[in-house]
Amino acid sequence: MERWLVNGASGDSIGLNDRGLHYGDGLFETIAVRNGTCRFIGAHLQRLSEGCARLKLPVPDLPVLESELQQLSRTVDHATVKVIVTRGAGPRGYRFPDPCMPTRIVGLEQTEPQPYPESGVQVRYCATRISRNPQFAGLKTLNRLEQVMARAEWNDPGIAEGLMSNDRDEIICGTMTNVFLVSRGILYTPSLLESGVSGIMRQQVIAVAADNGIEVQEASLSQYALSSADEIFLTNALIGLWTLSTLAGQKIRQGKLSETIRAALASRGVVECAP
Questions:
Q1: What is the pLDDT of residue 275?
Q2: What is the CA radius of gyration of the chain?
Q3: Is the previous residue joined to 99 through a cis bond, with omega within 30 degrees of 0?
Q4: What is the pLDDT of residue 274?
Q5: Per residue in 18-36, pLDDT tens?
Q6: What angle do CA 92, 61, 40 make, to 5 degrees?
Q7: How far lies 214's CA from each of 33, 140, 204, in Å?
Q8: Beta strand extents in the chain (DSSP E only)
Q9: Burial category of 249 from C-beta neighbours within 10 Å (exposed 0-12, middle 13-18, buried 19 and up)
């Protein structure tokens, strides 16, 4: 089942001159619905608001947007909600339209929960690079072509995710996930100062690590760092936390710190599942 609201009205289309379509001029959020509730809705709306400010994009009326999210999700047990905000319609050319009338799109797709393998998931490396651009680093913009091309690199259903590097061979993220590794009791995650998305579940992991006295460092991580890690796990708003069984064919150990983080996330209502 799919349902869509466009600027608050039921619909499934936008104008052909919308800048989100022409230029990827906008942002999006992907939110897990569990038992009729949008999980971490406050964090998602805060990130959306901060992203709009950085793009000089008018922030949507957040109480109205939250009401729309609740309207779509309140009777649904398990679903994915997508929020899209574009700069709206405009004439040909890159210049901002004046006045700017953003387009607000909210969609819900009902899904069936599918637990991930308890032994972990298989992950590979991608050849497609992720660009370095500090101006947009951390944002979830509509420009996802690098991730699209990276995901097109494999068709093996046994592989759950691919990891992407920048032009300096630093691991930044998965095509749809943030990356964490454990080494000597310290939790490391790639720095997002130049690229990548500041994931909502990434934020939750950093928070619960602090609550549990686990040191977290944002750092430059190489393939060697991952190959020598004690533990590796991936996160996003839909899947929760995935441990790895293999990375590029190399067996990855399961460890206690990942389990501590998983238990702490579970106390916040996070249960891992397939995307």
A1: 57
A2: 19
A3: yes
A4: 60
A5: 999 999 999 999 999 999 9
A6: 110
A7: 29, 27, 13
A8: 2-6, 9-10, 26-34, 37-38, 78-86, 103-110, 121-125, 159-165, 171-174, 178-183, 186-190, 216-219, 231-236, 240-247, 250-251
A9: exposed
Q: Which of 104, 15, 107 is nearest to 61 (CA)?
A: 104
The encoded tokens of residue 178 equal 């943030």
Residues in a beta bridge with 86: 26, 103
State phi, psi for 151 to the nearest 5 degrees. -65, -25
Instruction: Report the pLDDT value the prediction gives residue 152, as an integer from 0 to 100.
Output: 98
Residue with tokens 């709009």: 52
- The tokens for 5 are 């609201």
Q: The dihedral of CA 218, 223, 224, 226: what is its sign?
A: positive
CB 237 within 8 A of CB 32: yes
- Extract the residue ranges of the chain whose pLDDT is less than 70: 272-275
> What was the pLDDT predicted at 112?
87
Q: What are 248's two structure tokens?
A: 């590029």
Contacts of 57 (CB under 8 A, 6+ apart): 25, 26, 27, 51, 85, 87, 100, 102
How many Cα atoms within 13 Å fall on the side-chain side of residue 139?
A: 26
CA–CA distance, 259 with 235 (Å, rounded to integer): 13
User: Do residues 182 and 216 touch, judged by C-beta distance below 8 A?
Assistant: no
Q: In the chain, how many H helices and how many E strands? A: 7, 15
What tokens appear for 161 in the block?
């995710």
Residue 199 in tokens:
């994931």
For 255-268, write each residue's pLDDT tens digit.
999 999 999 999 88
Rounded to 5 degrees, φ, ψ at 107 are -130, 150
